[in-house]
Amino acid sequence: HVQLVESGGGSVQTGGSLRLSCVISGYSSDTYCLGWFRQAPGKAREGIASIRRDGDEYYGDSVAGRFTISRDNSKDTLTLQMNSLKLEDTALYYCARVEAVNFFVYWGQGTQVTVS
Fold first, then answer.
1. Alpha-carbon gap, residue 8 to 95, rounded angstroms
2. Cα dihedral: 101, 93, 48, 22 (round 10)
3. Could you report the per-residue pLDDT of 27-82, keeping only the tens digit for each?
4. Residue 70: strand pairing partners
5. What Cα–Cα distance (Å) separates residue 68 from each residue in 20, 28, 49, 64, 86?
6. Nearest-angstrom CA–CA distance, 103 and 78
7. Residue 43: CB atoms within 10 Å
8. Average pLDDT over residues 8-29
């Protein structure tokens, strides 16, 4: 079965950087896109960055210019480089995989990022 396992979260001071990773395994069908979402306490889950199978990237306004999404197909790994972190970046961060055949979304368990 498909599994997504995030790592790299932690605590950092404002202005600092973190790099999140997501290892994806167990899939046999084509991937439409991979993405990162986050959810802060009391707020809805927010899509912040994605990369499609053709390489097209998307960034939410709140992270554009500070975060960079990338993928390593050889290692089935998705990363999110986060720079110039702000207090409002504090959230639980999830990676997601969207299947091409039916657009079903698989989620990881999340990794906490705390900026203080």
1. 12
2. -50
3. 888 989 999 999 999 999 999 999 999 999 999 999 999 999 999 988 899 999 99
4. 79
5. 10, 27, 8, 8, 15
6. 18
7. 9
8. 95
